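Re: the 128-residue chain
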Amino acid sequence: MMFRRIDHIEIVPSDPEETLDFYQNVLGFRLNLRTPVNAPPMKEVIYLELGDTVIEVISAENPSPPSKESWQVGYRAIALEVDNMNEAVGYLRGKGVTMSREPVDLGTSIRAELQDPDGLVIELREWK
């Protein structure tokens, strides 16, 4: 097959430091690389890893705020697989994170949602 997997997902946060704090200290991503970029409006690219998942955080000068429209054309969410939904949700609540959608049993999996500091949707999925 020509295409193998998703290599990384890019996000542009309003506050890169707040976003890094959330993804590293709440979700457990590890900083892999942080590089200044001289390509305005881009200022810096930061690679975060969780297992074999990579998020590229792009620091940009004055990014536009995210749309408040919940169902718009485009990517809607990233999803993180969890071993135990109850433990994951309890951990997140202990870190002060509010679930935007409480866990729901879908038969073959349990699904929940939270949001990052900019309101980007992060789905949690426990496969049975």
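The chain has a mean pLDDT of 94.
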